[in-house]
Amino acid sequence: MKVLLAYPEFPDTFWSFKHALRFPGKRSAYPPLGLLTVSALLPPSWEKRLVDSNVQRLKDSDLQWADVVFFSGMIVQGSSMKEQIARAKRLGKRTVVGGPIASAHDPSISQADHIVEGEAEDVIGELAGDLERGAAKPQYSSPQMVDVTRTPLPDLHLASMGRYSCMSIQFSRGCPFTCEFCDIIEIYGRRPRTKTPDQVCAELDQLYRLGWRGSVFMVDDNFIGNKKSVKALLPRLVEWMREHKFPFTLFTEASLNLAEDEEMLELMRAAHFTRVFLGIETPVAESLKETTKFQNLRKDLLESVRLIQAYGMEVMAGFIVGFDNDPPDVFDRQIEFIRQAAIPLSMVGLLTALPNTQLWRRLKAEGRLLKSSLGNNTLADLNFIPRMDTQELLEGYRRILRTIYNPREYFQRTSAFLSQLGSGSRSPLVFSDLVALSRSLWRQGLLSNYRQEYWKFLVQSLRLHRQHFSKAVTLAIMGHHFFALTSATETN
Ligand code: SF4
Question: Which ligand 1 atom is nearest residue 190's CA?
């Protein structure tokens, strides 16, 4: 059996980093880890190919080669996936869809022949057998949360690694918290399940053996969801890194209670974690209570961010406007918080009711749902009726973006961040970093309309934050992505 693993295209969102990836000559941020893991679960006798449409074009000849096409993706990839499913079917190919988009029953996958809901590990054997016999069912559902200690190493050799800026590995799935808008806990559960330290080291070994050096994203929903297991893992991770002379820097997502555990922070610094994404959501306590994000109310938010930064880790954070309890000054309060916390990469989005979440169920009961979510945090597009006047909310949201991604404001905030950043690890310098620097000097330093602010920032970084200079260049390049997208948001 020949299987084509197809990963549809992401639209241009804050998370795509498309405008920044051009600088180091990369096409996408991360390879599709879920599909590569599915590949490893399929019978070894099957022939497998991967086409990630974010790094290469899906050709008719790719589809013609295959007996069956396996798609995976998120809701935000729905439009591209719908088009690719239709193409595969026109060529007479059997189509299978899994991943978060399948668990969400998104309308864009309605034409697929077979849907795999939930995690793949416990159903993929049955699906493969049924496909071989020509008797596959329309729907497969994982009977339980899978035991990830049995999850195999992903088939990374199928990915063109040089086209990505970062590689990904996974340690855990699930999160113990209860945020009302979150779909992670609905899909992966509230009991975080973790791989063993040996599995994680094996994933790092594989990356190292395949020649990867640089950033590695630990794609966990909440890396510290199971603190006991993380504390068992981190010393092994530190040991592995030392033995291999620190070939990687690590990035992950965690809940804000990370700032309540300095032992954890110290271990993460030692393991070369250089960036962590936190769901801060809002400085408005009433809105945090509304969304049952109580872990963000336990300690002062600013203090928490600064403590993590002091451990040498850049804080990247998510913010949301549109909660029922948001007061009229929420937009100014968000801007002020982002400024004071000095968070360069602040992902601000409108509240979205994702399918099958607690928020979705509440808004449905209240008769306030308008349509399915597009899963795109860049669009000023609401899928429910907010308490605040819709126009006021949309204008306030655009004003936050306009303000925080004004180049002068961004570079000032990034300079403030570099002053707060404690000593940590430095990324190993790779060839693409030098390419990125030269392109940044050319495009941002000579051709951009914010070149004056850019040079001021670079010179100041060299003078005051020389030890963080490569971070400064990376953040200047990332800023370009946000400047470009924010101007686009102004026009949509
Ligand atoms: S902390 Fe993050 S992953 Fe956990 S429930 Fe809240 S939003 Fe979801």
Answer: 5
pLDDT tens, position by position, 352-389: 999 989 999 999 999 999 988 776 666 667 999 999 99
Rounded to the nearest angstrom, the distance between the alpha carbon of 13 and the centre of ligand 1 is: 21
The full set of domain ranges for the chain reads 2-141, 166-420
CA of 69 to the centre of ligand 1 (A): 32
| Residues 192, 222: Cα–Cα separation, whole Å | 8
pLDDT in the model for residue 38? 97
Residues contacting ligand 1 via CB (< 6 Å): 175, 177, 179, 182, 184-185, 221-222, 255, 279
Helix H segments across 60-209? Answer: 60-65, 78-90, 100-103, 124-133, 184-188, 197-209
Ligand 1 atom having least distance to the Cα of 181? 7
Looking at residue 338, its pLDDT comes to 98
Residue with tokens 């054997």: 125
Q: Mean pLDDT, to the nearest integer, of 152-164? A: 96
CA of 74 to the centre of ligand 1 (A): 17
Q: Give 144's pLDDT tier (boundaries 50, 70, 90).
A: confident
342 in Cβ contact with 309 (< 8 Å)? yes
Ligand 1, closest atom to CA 175?
A: 4
CA of 158 to the centre of ligand 1 (A): 31
Cα torsion for 115, 120, 126, 130, to the nearest 10°?
A: 40
> How does pLDDT run across 384-408, given as a tens digit for each residue?
999 999 999 999 999 999 999 999 9
Alpha-carbon distances, residue 328 vs 99, 180, 392 (angstroms): 38, 22, 9
The confidence band for 450, taking pLDDT boundaries of 50, 70 and 90, is: very high
Which atom, in ligand 1's list, is nearest to the CA of 293? 6
Q: Does domain 166-420 have CATH number 3.60.15.10?
A: no
Confidence (pLDDT) at 373: 77
298 C-alpha to ligand 1 centroid (Å): 15
CA distance 127 to 110: 18
| CATH number of this structure's domain 2-141 | 3.40.50.280
